[in-house]
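Re-run with default settings, no changes from the original entry. Doing this only to confirm the output is reproducible before filing.
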Amino acid sequence: MEEARAVRYRRYAFAVCTLIFVGLQASPVRLQSADPLLEATSTSAREPITPIPEPVITDRLKVRLGERLFGDKRLSRDNSHSCSSCHDIGTNGASRHSHDVGVDGSMMPLNTLTIFNAALSFRFSWEGKYRTLEADALAALEGPGIMGTSTSEVVEKLKADSDMRRDFAAAYGGGPDQANILDAIARFERTLVTPGSRFDRWLSGDAAALSENEINGYQLFKSLGCVSCHQGVNVGGNLFERHGIFHPLASPKPEILRVPSLRNVAVTAPYFHDGSAPTLEDAVRKMGVAQLNSTLTDQQVNAIVAFLQTLTGRYRGTPVGASP
């Protein structure tokens, strides 16, 4: 009875999520492929996951300024934290901690999501509270347990720096203010995409990019129902889901989460919103039980993990997770 219920749920979830996913594809996209021919391959056209396109940079001055701001500790109340303190783009776009520590010394309530490929998601934060990267950046700046500051305070700090005034004038035609600070950060974050994974190469027609075990893992990923929530260009990030559908999974709150992207998942441990799964194998087993009501065999877990490891892309010529 339980197995039949699980099968019915997986079929229903796949149908619903497919409808949501198809609808989301009509949303405006800020990235485009460097080679449109790659996206037209027969493999990619048949699959529920699509390759990550190269970013389109329309204003390099603003992007470079955004990168400087991303690493600037003056964006925190006491000049102790920058965006990169928790989102290390030199490694995995997040950190190795289950919970990072904010400027007030307290642990953040939820595990830090990677900033890599965040721009490909339809909402931001674990609960999907923010619809734009600019709104997400503002919430981080003003969050008492994150950066603990205000944009007016940040503006005054940056105005006191002659180099910053010059760079803002060159990029925006005026001095730093809330709008252009948030715009610059968001523009930089939109460049933090990681194309070039082995799985994307396979989607684009390179049959030798994956091993037989990795392809088997992908087939299991689809047949078991994982792809019901983890699909699209970001292998997730485009819908909400309740966790612990069949059995409890991690901390019970918040109950509804934005489905996280699985891009680069092999290098973003620990896992779940509370950081309670230390390894990818552990996370896959727990997700099988909690979300699919399935106790996966060692062989199934190993194959799925092998597939997930092929989702690691490259940033600035270096595989994500590797120190430059």
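Strands lie at 240-242, 256-258, 314-315, 318-319. Residues 2-24 form the longest helix (23 residues).
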